[in-house]
Design a protein that fits this description.
This protein has a single domain, classed as BH3618-like (Roll), CATH 2.30.290. The protein is 28% helix and 29% strand. It is built from two helices and ten strands, in the order H-E-E-E-E-E-E-E-E-E-E-H. The strands form two sheets. The protein has a seven-stranded mixed beta barrel with strand order 3-4-5-6-7-8-9. A two-stranded antiparallel ribbon has the order 1-2. The chain is globular, with a radius of gyration of 22 Å.
């Protein structure tokens, strides 16, 4: 091992300080972002939204998607519409009342899935051909959502009808 000269010591110390400063900046930025998100969601919770699927709704489970959903990147505010007696939940856009995605909790049909993951469903006219997108799950963490693209062999059009049927119609 070579002895450290003064320049190496200074460079090493500067890198450590920069790393510490970078972490502090990121932490402060996250606090500001979280405060901004909470402010947006608080405003939303006091509004009503007209939707084509659910009529007029007042958000109770509003979510903020920093990057939107694939194909809908400009849509940041969503509502998670749930019904305890149904397997399917809905991700309803609060920007456009005609946009809503049916989803299913991923851990209902995938033992490897996390509790906070949902799969977006495609439901064609023949409901028996229903599929789930396991490649790009929706992940919900408190009041924030994101869509994560998995870099594995997860199936985009996973047939799900029989699994749901066996869970709910035994």
């Amino acid at each position: 091992m070579r002895p450290m000269n003064d320049i190496t010591k200074i460079t090493s110390k500067t890198k450590r300080l920069f790393t510490i400063d970078e972490k502090l900046i990121r932490a402060n930025f996250n606090v500001v972002e979280e405060s901004k998100i909470n402010s947006i969601l608080n405003e939303i919770s006091q509004m009503t939204f007209e939707t084509t699927r659910f009529g007029e709704i007042i958000p109770k489970n509003a979510l903020y998607f920093e990057e939107g959903v694939y194909g809908f990147e400009g849509y940041k505010e969503w509502e998670l519409v749930t019904n305890a007696s149904e397997a399917i939940v809905w991700l309803q856009s609060l920007k456009d009342g005609s946009i809503a995605f049916p989803m299913v909790k991923a851990d209902l049909v995938d033992s490897k899935a996390q509790d906070n993951e949902y799969y977006i469903l495609t439901i064609p006219p023949n409901v028996k051909e229903m599929t789930a997108n396991k490649r790009a799950p929706i992940v919900i963490d408190q009041n924030q959502g994101s869509q994560k693209l998995k870099n594995d062999s997860s199936v985009v059009n996973f047939p799900i009808y029989q699994e749901l049927r066996s869970l709910y119609f035994k």
